[in-house]
Design a protein that fits this description.
Radius of gyration: 13 Å
Strand content: under 5%
Structural class: mainly alpha
Distance between the termini: 27 Å
Number of helices: 6
Number of strands: 0
Order of helices and strands: HHHHHH
């Protein structure tokens, strides 16, 4: 189950939408890689990200990367800009090679 995503301010209807939007392989990754996903989302939360819905819906791949790798990439960019992009249009993270 991906109910652990509720820890990141996702509601039951958000989880239902995620399950509907993604195929079984992506949902399976969220289940199998729970520890990694939690590590990544905890890190993003620690730097100030509060809304994870857009990130999960638009860039679920980021949840599956190594936290230390992601941290190295993000430390090179202004933290306020990163938070804004993640919460508003995470597709634009590609412009930062993320």
């Amino acid at each position: 189950m991906i109910d652990y995503l509720k820890l990141y301010n996702l509601k039951t209807n958000d989880l239902a939408y995620i399950k509907k939007k993604f195929n079984k392989d992506i949902i399976g990754k969220f289940e199998i890689m729970e520890n990694n996903v939690v590590s990544v989302l905890d890190y993003l939360q620690s730097i100030g990200v509060k809304d994870f819905k857009e990130l999960i819906l638009n860039r679920p791949d980021i949840c599956f990367v190594d936290k230390d790798y992601l941290k190295t990439k993000l430390e090179k960019i202004d933290i306020n800009l990163i938070i804004f992009v993640i919460e508003n249009d995470p597709q634009n993270l590609i412009n930062f090679d993320i």
